[in-house]
Amino acid sequence: MPLLGVVIYFSVTPKFVPPTFMYAKLFAISILTIVVPVLFYFLLESVKLVSSVHLKEVKERRIPLLVQIGLLLLIVRIIINGYEFPELYIFFLGILITAATAFILSLLNFKTSLHMVGIAGVLFFVMALSMIYNANYLMIIGLLVIAIGLTAASRLELKAHTMTELVVGVVVGGLPQLLVFYFYKM
Fold this sequence. Notes:
The protein has one domain. With 186 residues, it is mainly α. Helices cover 76% and strands 0% of the residues. 34% of the residues are buried. The longest helix is centred in the N-terminal third of the chain and has 28 residues. Helix 1 runs parallel beside helix 5, helix 5 runs antiparallel to helix 6 and helix 5 runs parallel beside helix 7. The protein is globular, with a radius of gyration of 16 Å.
C-alpha cells in the first residue's frame, strides 16, 4: 500500500518531478516495502517464527511489524526528503505511526486487520492530497472506498477477522494520516 500511495502521489502532484528521479524513488520504495518484507517473511518461515503468510496468530505479527517500522524509518530518514516531497514525507510519517500502533496493539494481543490498515491509509492520504492541492480526486477516492468495502467483505467471508478488527484497522490506518496532515497544514 505505501507503494500505491507513492504511485498515486506522483500521478497527481502538480509539481514537476524528473522521470529518472521519480523512478529511482519508486524503485527504492519498492525494494523496501515489497522485496525486503517478502524475503524477511521467508526467513521467518524457515526458522518457524511464522506458520503461514496469513499471520493468523497475534504473536506472529510482532516481528514483521518491527521490521516494517525499521524499514519505514529508513525511508523517512534516507529516501523521502521532507523538503522535496513534504506530502510524501508526511504520508510515511503517518504510516510509521500506524505501524507502531499496530505493533502496540499486537503486544496487547489484539489482531487488527492489516489489509484494512493499508487501504484506509492510502484512502485518507488521497483525501488529504485532494484538500492540499484543492483538486478533485473523487474517482480515485471512490475506487479506494470500493476497495475498502471489498476488502472488508472478503476478510469477513474468509473469517480472517471480526468486524471490530476491521473497524480498528480502518481507524489505525486512517487516523494517523488525518492527524499528520492536519499538523502539516498548520
